[in-house]
Amino acid sequence: MDGFNAFVELVDQWAWIGWLVLIATFLVIEMLSLDFTFLMLALGSAVGLITDLVGTPVWVQVLAAALAAALFILFLRPPLLKRLRRGEDPTKSNVDALIDLRGFALTDITQLTGQAKLANGDTWTARTATAAPIPQGAPLLVSSINGAVAVVRPAGE
Questions:
Q1: Does 104 lie in the same domain as 73?
Q2: Percent composition of the chain: helix, strand, coil (DSSP 3-state, to 5)
Q3: Which end of the chain, C or N, has fewer beta carbons within 10 A?
Q4: What pLDDT digit, counting tens, does each position of 65-94 carry?
Q5: Last residue of one domain, picked from the residues 29, 57, 85
């Protein structure tokens, strides 16, 4: 039991280094992810470091850090994310902009073959989302994009 007590004393004496390593690690991960989650974990670790500097036991430090990180994630992160994203353009782009776009069938479209002309002027290889074929010239809507293939459905559905 003496070895265990020596280990606990060693951890208690050098815990501040562990907190600094955690803070640095979380900050580096945050710089790569830019999601504010690891920033909140770094702030929680800073609370753990502060509790270590005032001399509390390691289990209290861990508990305080975990509680602080949870509170930061629940209450500080959402308004930060909202503020960060308030200037974003809400317009859909790329593949997201094609979903529900109207068009018409250039050829008969089945589950195996077909071509569609979309309202944006693009011509796509198309497949039907259902077993029912879409005849040439019929109006259609894009259901999804699967690679370079537009999965379409009749416009009446």
A1: no
A2: 50, 20, 30
A3: N
A4: 999 999 999 999 999 998 888 877 677 667
A5: 85
